[in-house]
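User: What would this chain look like folded?
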Amino acid sequence: MRQVDIGGLRASDWSLGTMTFGNQTPQDDAHRQMDMALAAGVTLWDCAEMYPVNPVRRETVGRSEAIIGSWLASRGGRDRVVLATKVAGPGSPVRAEGYGTPVLERACEASLRRLNTEVIDLYQLHWPERGTYAWRQHWDWRPPSNREETLAHMDDVLGALSRLVERGKVREVGLSNETAWGTCRWLDRAEATGAPRMVSVQNEYSLLDRLYDADMAEATAMEGLALLAYSPLAAGLLTGKYLDGAVPPGSRKALNGTLSGRAAPRTDAAVRAYHALAAEAGMDPVHMALAWHRTRPFPSLPIFGATTADQLARILKGLDAAVPPDLARAIDEAHRQHPLPF
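Assistant: Here's the prediction, encoded as structure tokens.
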């Protein structure tokens, strides 16, 4: 398994996503998935305090972290995995308030208890408190302009994160659903205040969603941040299982009919184009979609999730897959023909 550096962490360049653990994925299957991932060399595992999803409910908040914690309690060997989790922002089912100092301290302690660990390797802010254009909000995005208030907020949050790092509760810190401006300002304020530097950003990135390729790619490449790419299979669309309006029983689409806006009129045509390229190359389209991240001119680590262990087994068969330069160029051309279909 290929290894990459995320700040001071060393981890696999593919990541196990756990957002279905405790909802679509029961604990025994989740434990099996973690066993399979670790055996295959996938050591970076991503979670969030508000998981599981589909849907997110107040009564299930923290369940995914608790299932990881139960796995650690039964298997041991905490040092074998790199644990990443996220603190939820304002307006979530977890809390209404933002990322102030008391919130971060309480949230971190709660995640540590559920994860059954003394330290979180990568602690991420789930989305900017000022809002985000992620999740299809870019179509009518209205950026904020309260610069001084935002910078003061960043200083407060960085102060809280500093104390968590100093106390040994957190090793590295990262962002999620951030913008290029926001990413650069977090780095500026960390340098100005002597706070921990953000080492990663977790944004959506896939063959179907390449919004990241412009300003965010430049910002993180120039500043040395890794991208933890969520939804690298576009919520399952790139598997082909939703073509022609299909809705497999128990699937994510069965619970979320629009796949959070991804199931759009132009999506099927784009999926078929990528499937045709994979067929011509003799590759599983799932493996092509994930291996493509290794062709990017910046570190892009796909976070894949699986509802079942059988789905994970298919993914893991492609850990050593590679996208050669001619296929990468064909993928870029398909992207020009089918840009941002949702």
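The domain at 3-236+293-322 is CATH 3.20.20.100 (TIM Barrel). If you want, I can go into more detail on any region.
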